[in-house]
Amino acid sequence: MSAVIKIENLTKIYKLSKRREVTGLLNFNLEVEEGEIFGLLGPNGSGKTTLLKIMLGLISPTKGKVEILGKRMDNVEVKKDIGFLPENPYYYEYLTGSELLDFYGDIFDLPENVKRRRSQELLSTVGLAKVKHMVLRNYSKGMLERIGLACALLNNPKLLILDEPTTGLDPIGGRETRDLLLGLKKEGKTILLSSHFLSEVERICDRIGILDQGRLLAVGRLKELLKERKVETFEDLFIKIVKNNV
Amino acid sequence: MYKPAVIAKNSFKELLRKKGLQVLLVFGLILIGSSRLFSFLTPGEEMKMIKDVGLSTIEFFGALIVIFGAIGALSSEVEKKTLYTLLAKPLKRRDFVLGKFLGLSLATLLNFLLMAIFFIGLLLFKEHTVSSGIFKALILILFELFLIAAIALAVSTFASPAFTMIFSLFLYLVGHLIGYGHSLMEQTESALLKAAGTLFYRIIPNFENFNIRDKVAVDIFVRWNYLVKTIGYSLIYIAVALLIGIYFFQKREI
Amino acid sequence: MLRPDPHKHKFAIKIFSTIIILLIGISFLQKSINLQRKVEDLEARLLLMPGEIAGSLILVGFRGIGADLLWLQVHHCWHSGQHYRMLPLFNAITFLQPHFITPWAVGGWHMAYNIYVLMKTEKEKNQWLQAGLDFLKKGTQHNPDRYDLHFELGWTYYHKAKDYPNAIKYFEKAIKFPHPDYVDNCLAHAYAKNGQIGNSIKHWEYIRDRSPGFNKVAVRILHNLKTYGSVNAPEENE
Questions:
Q1: Which residues of A touch C7 (CB under 8 A)?
Q2: What's the first-to-final CA gap in chain A, in angstroms?
Q3: CA angle B68, B73, B78 (to 5 degrees)
Q4: What's the CA angle centered on B145, arms B144 and B146, to 5 degrees?
Q5: What is the count of structural domains for chain B?
Q6: Please, what is the Cα angle at C52 between C137 and B166, to 5 degrees?
Q7: Is the model's pLDDT at C51 over the cut of 70?
């Protein structure tokens, strides 16, 4: 197995003014292997979003290196193999569901027939086939989350990056999403998801990383971490690690 | 499909839906139509006024539509975080800026055509012929609008919407006066002022180049080679503005 | 610097050197445009009038509209009898749009006729007549290639100043450009008044052959000129 994500010494410092700086990430190191589901956990403001943004080339790191699928992130071509679902996805509200997929399909440069076929498949997978001709303005929060997932899978990505994927979903939707993710894992896809739902992460992730104040405080399999830190539950583990850091 | 074209198509769709721009267009059309109120003047005077009001309205309202459109083109994607999703896809930022410019230009062209056709219809209704001068003036206005679009878009890649609006309107004003400013500066004694004047004159686009409407309204003949030069001028400046836009957008943290 | 990206500087250098090259190219183009604007009379003039809406419009490059608004003010002054307030307006409009013919024509007429009659002394009357003629002359200098102002000037010499040699001079200029038929009539009349009967006959013959509208008049006047040596028959004179 080879590393799909390889992050070395990643540091991001936000300059607010000449004197004031805020550390987003500090000397962050991480490797995620092919075919695993990796869960990124941390309280709000811990640096999860900063990390994802750097990985997607939306912001540039102050220091360090990110390699995805063996390529540096400033190479846009890498993104052909990445699917991304942002937190609270918001799309062009004047497009319909199928128009949105069509638009992103063009951005991915998918051939016309592949684009058609994948859109159809994905719309029924996420359960939106009936409302594909409705404009997104009229979609509910959960529907937006689902169409977002469809967009993220449109290019049949090798790596899927999900930021808080089940926030907007009801329990049934959350369940369906989890099953979908496990199915994707079986297909050999690598998934990186950030969340603060401990139960969600506990159920589907192979390994987890706990972040706070821009640092990776713990990384490994959940069972091993519990044993290592001598705690019973995931919740205790999380609280212990984050509190120790303060 | 060519990536900028994909972006252009989508942003064109979005611009057409903007209520504010539709309102501006309607105002523009009303103003062009209202020039018929001057019918108490002699026929020659009336025609001149219809031409003045029509051409000036197309330019001024065109400029407003372009500036507001440019501001919305980028800021709406930033505010609504659609940019976040879009740039996570295999899309070069350069192509995004180019696409936005193309979409904006397309929307500009459409607004321009609506006003121009209405105006020409009015002239035909009154006079039964339209001189080539009117078409020349219209063509130069269109290229002036494209240039304003590129500049406003470039500014909006690094500045807030409010700043973009103020700056673009200010540049529009200064760009019309820069020629006079330069000849005033030439007469000063201070070498520093002179140098500063020349520098500004070299950097700020001279929008007066595009202004032949005061001349065609009184039937002065303008040669086609003047149009070729001025269109070339606008295309080069558009390239400069887009390069600046691409540079800042490339650096932008999203 | 912590920045790990060596491409960053290269990128900036590439972009900005291209921009500088383009701006240099543009400055040559601007020179050529400036020259053409000057030579082909496309240049616009700047006139500052504090407090005037027209003034502010002119600033932003809407000279045409500015001139139109001033022209509407002339109309207003006219109907409210403010004769002297019109004079600066004429100057301003013709300065802004020297190829807008009507203000030249109306301004000259206004001075030579309307203000003329308001004056009490002969000296003052002549001063305003001269002012009107000068204004029209300035107009012809800006618009030498059209008949309009040459004709207006000729007419003012002919009708108001009774200065026939000058009238002939400007009517002759006017007919060099496309013009309505009555301009020829005026010239032919001016020849006769100036005693150039031969020229007058030639020109009436020209009118007789060329302009059907004036054919009857021309035939009658030609008869009179050839018989009595004057435009009118002796009995008509009384």
A1: 74
A2: 36
A3: 120
A4: 90
A5: 1
A6: 120
A7: no
pLDDT of A69 over the 80 cut: yes
Q: Select from C33, C75, C99 the Cβ nearest to the Cβ of B230.
A: C33
Helices (H), B128-204: 132-156, 161-186, 191-203
A94-A54-B101-A152 Cα dihedral, nearest 10 degrees: -30
For chain B, say whether C23 makes contact (Cβ under 8 Å): yes
Strands A215-220 and A71-72: unpaired
- Asked if the ipTM is above 0.90, the reply is no
C-alpha distance from A148 to closest chain C C-alpha (Å): 32
Give the residues across from C216 on adjacent strands: none
Q: With beta carbons under 8 A apart, name residues in chain C contacting A61.
A: 4
**Residue partners of B189: CB distance under 8 A and separation at least 6:** none
Determine the length of chain A. 246
pLDDT reading at C235 higher than 80: no
For the structural domain made of A36-60+74-245, what CATH number should be given?
3.40.50.300
Task: Give per-residue pLDDT as tens, B143-172.
Answer: 999 999 999 999 999 999 999 999 999 999
DSSP B220: -
Measured CA to CA, the distance from residue C198 to residue C191 in angstroms comes to 8
Tell me whether residue B202 is in a domain. Answer: no
pLDDT over 80 at C130, yes or no: yes
Domains of chain A, by residue range, sit at 36-60+74-245
* Best residue of B84, B91, B95 to probe chain A, by most A CBs closer than 10 Å: B84
Q: How large a percentage of chain C has pLDDT more than 70?
A: 87
The whole-number average pLDDT for the span B205-209 is 90
Report, as an integer, the average pLDDT of C65-91: 84
Across chain A, mean pLDDT equals: 87
Chain B residues touching residue A60 (CB < 8 angstroms): 253
pLDDT at C50: 54
Instruction: Name which of A76, A78, A92 is nearest B91 (Cβ-Cβ).
Output: A76
Is some CB atom of chain A closer than 8 A to the CB atom of B81?
yes
Q: For residue range A208-239, what is the model confidence (pLDDT) as tens digits?
A: 998 888 888 889 898 888 888 888 888 888 88
How close are the terminal C-alpha atoms of chain C, in Å? 107
**Which of B14, B80, B87 is nearest residue A58 as measured by Cβ atoms?**
B87
| Contact between B212 and C42 using a beta-carbon 8 Å cutoff | yes
Domain span at B231: 3-159+207-251
Give the residue-averaged pLDDT of A92-100: 91
* Coil, strand or helix at A223: helix
Say whether pLDDT at C1 is over 60: no
- In three-state secondary structure terms, C84 is helix
| Residues on C contacting A at a C-beta cutoff of 8 Å | 2-5, 7
- What is the arithmetic mean of pLDDT over B230-249? 95
Q: What is the mean pLDDT of residues B217-245?
A: 92
Residue B172 lies in a domain: no
pLDDT at residue A238 in the model: 84
Strand partners, A10: A28
B176 occurs within a structural domain: no
Closest CB from A92, A94, A104 relative to B89: A104
Q: What are phi and psi of B204, to 5 degrees?
A: -80, 130
